[in-house]
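Deliverable D2.4 — example input (C-alpha cells):
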C-alpha cells in the first residue's frame, strides 16, 4: 500500500494525492483542491503546526524523549543544566562544553537592581506569584533592547542564556516579595537547584539536604519540555510575529498559568485538601463522574492515553523527599484517588491516568513551597523548552507568522439601523 492519501472534492470531482510522511500529510493538498476550503480543527486536536526535532511523545505507549534520550534515563543520570544544553543544542555536552555552559548560566543569574527595587515593589501585597512572574519576564526584556534583534544568533543565544539563568532569581524574588522577606542575591558557588532554594529560603544560615537538591533538579528535568503543549504553542505563535523572546516567553508563561495546564499542580493540592480524608474519596469520584465537583485535577492528558512517564518518576521522587521532610499527609488521599480512579470504567474508558501534575504538588508542599508557587516551579524549567522551540521556529524556513483562518458563523451582510429605529 502506498504511503499516500487521496482527497476528492465531490463538488468538482477534482482529486489530489499527497504523501503521508511519519503520519503527517501536508494541508497544502486542500489548498490544491480549493484555496477557499479550510479544515476545521478547534484546539488543533488533529493538526501538526510545525516540524520539531526537540521532544518526542508517544501518548499510547507513555513514551517521552528529549532529543531521543528517554526521560527515565535523563532523570536518573543527568542534571537540569545538562538537559537544558541538550534541548537547546541537540546533543549532550562534553565535559568542556558543560563546564562553559554552567559557568555562563551561573554568571547571568543576577537581575537589574531596578527590577528588585522598583518594579517588583509595584505589585499589590497579595499578588499571585505566577502573575508576578509573567509580568517580570516581559519586564526583563525591557532591560535588553538588543533582544529585538532576533535574526542575530549571538544575540539570540545571549537572551536565551539570560532568561534561563534569571528565571530562578525572578521566581525567588516574587516569593520573597509575597511574604515580605528581604531579597536573597544569587550565590554563584551553588548548583542551579541549590542556588534557587537558597534564594527562596535563606534567612541567616541555610543548610540544604543533598537529597532535596537532587529532587529539585529531577523535577526541573521532568518539566523542561513537552512538545507542542499549550504554553509552547503560545511561545511559537507569539514568536512567529518576531516579538522578542522575553515577550514570547511571558505569553507562554501566561498560558501555563491556566488550571487546565500548568496551574493543575496547584489545583491538585487544593482538590486533595478539599477531599480531606481517604474515606471521602469514593464520594468525590462519584461527583466527578456525575459532572459535579469539577474534574479530577492531575488526571488526563491530550496526548498521553497511558500513564504519563513523568508521573511515575515524580511518584518515586516523592518518597525520596518524604524520607527527609516527613510524609505529606495528602499522599494517602492521592494514592486512594489513583487506586479508585484507575479501577473505574469512567476514567479507564476515557484513558484518564495521572499526569505530571498529580504528584508534583505533594513534593513542592513537602519542600515548604506555598501552593501559589507551584506553577512558578513549573515555569522555571519550562523556560528552556519554550526557548528551544523558539529558536527552532526562528530557523525554520517553512514557518511564517501564525495566522489561522476561521469557520465564520456570524450574521450575513446587513445595513446599519439608526438608534431611533432600534
Ligand atoms: C499539563 O499538553 C501538555 O503536554 C501539557 C503538559 C506539559 O508538560 O506541558 O503535560 C502539562 O498541562 C498536564 C495536564 C494538567 N491538567 C490537568 O490535570 C487538568 C485536568 N485534566 C483535564 O482537564 C484534561 O484531561 C486535559 C485538559 C489535560 C486534556 O483535556 P482534553 O484532551 O481536551 O480532553 P477533554 O477535555 O476533551 O476530555 C475528554 C473526556 C471528557 O469527557 P466527555 O465529555 O467525553 O464525557 O474526558 C473527560 C472530559 O470530561 N476528562 C476528565 C478529565 N479530563 C478529561 N474527567 C474528569 N477528570 C479529568 N481530569
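Example output (designed residues):
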Amino acid at each position: 500500500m502506498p504511503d499516500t492519501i487521496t482527497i476528492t472534492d465531490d463538488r468538482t470531482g477534482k482529486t489530489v494525492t499527497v504523501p503521508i510522511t511519519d503520519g503527517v500529510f501536508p494541508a497544502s493538498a486542500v489548498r490544491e483542491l480549493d484555496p477557499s476550503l479550510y479544515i476545521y480543527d478547534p484546539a488543533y486536536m488533529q493538526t501538526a503546526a510545525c516540524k520539531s526535532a526537540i521532544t518526542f511523545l508517544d501518548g499510547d505507549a507513555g513514551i517521552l524523549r528529549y532529543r531521543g534520550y528517554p526521560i527515565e534515563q535523563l532523570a536518573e543520570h543527568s542534571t537540569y543544566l545538562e538537559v537544558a544544553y541538550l534541548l537547546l543544542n541537540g546533543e549532550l555536552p562534553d565535559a568542556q562544553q558543560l563546564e562553559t555552559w554552567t559557568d555562563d548560566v551561573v554568571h547571568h543569574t543576577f537581575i537589574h537592581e531596578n527590577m528588585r527595587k522598583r518594579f517588583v515593589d509595584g505589585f499589590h501585597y497579595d499578588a499571585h506569584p505566577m502573575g508576578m512572574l509573567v509580568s517580570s519576564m516581559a519586564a526583563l526584556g525591557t532591560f535588553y533592547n538588543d533582544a529585538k534583534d532576533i535574526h542575530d544568533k549571538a544575540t539570540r543565544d545571549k537572551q536565551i542564556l539570560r532568561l534561563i539563568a534569571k528565571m530562578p532569581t525572578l521566581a525567588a524574588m516574587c516569593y520573597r516579595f509575597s511574604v515580605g522577606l528581604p531579597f536573597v542575591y544569587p550565590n554563584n558557588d551553588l548548583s542551579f537547584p541549590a542556588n534557587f532554594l537558597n534564594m527562596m529560603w535563606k534567612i541567616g544560615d541555610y543548610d540544604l539536604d543533598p537529597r532535596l537538591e537532587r529532587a529539585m533538579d529531577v523535577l526541573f528535568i521532568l518539566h523542561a519540555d513537552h512538545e507542542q503543549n499549550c504554553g509552547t504553542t503560545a511561545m511559537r505563535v507569539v514568536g512567529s510575529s518576531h516579538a522578542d523572546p522575553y515577550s514570547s516567553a511571558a505569553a507562554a508563561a501566561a498560558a501555563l498559568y491556566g488550571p487546565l495546564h500548568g496551574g493543575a499542580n496547584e489545583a491538585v493540592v487544593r482538590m486533595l485538601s478539599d477531599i480531606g480524608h481517604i474515606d471521602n474519596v469514593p464520594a468525590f469520584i462519584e461527583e466527578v463522574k456525575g459532572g459535579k465537583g469539577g474534574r479530577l485535577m492531575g488526571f488526563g492528558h491530550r496526548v498521553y492515553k497511558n500513564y504519563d512517564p513523568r508521573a511515575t518518576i515524580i511518584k518515586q521522587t516523592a518518597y525520596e523527599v518524604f524520607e527527609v521532610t516527613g510524609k505529606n499527609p495528602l499522599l494517602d488521599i492521592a494514592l486512594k484517588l489513583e487506586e479508585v480512579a484507575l479501577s473505574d470504567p469512567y476514567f479507564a474508558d476515557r484513558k484518564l491516568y495521572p499526569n505530571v501534575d498529580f504528584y508534583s504538588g505533594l513534593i513542592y508542599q513537602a519542600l515548604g513551597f506555598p501552593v501559589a508557587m507551584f506553577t512558578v516551579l513549573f515555569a522555571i524549567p519550562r523556560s528552556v523548552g519554550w526557548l528551544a522551540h523558539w529558536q527552532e521556529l526562528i530557523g525554520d524556513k517553512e514557518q511564517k507568522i501564525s495566522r489561522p483562518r476561521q469557520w465564520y458563523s456570524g450574521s450575513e451582510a446587513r445595513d446599519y439601523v439608526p438608534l431611533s429605529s432600534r
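Residues 72-399 form a domain with the Citrate Synthase; domain 1 fold (CATH 1.10.580.10).
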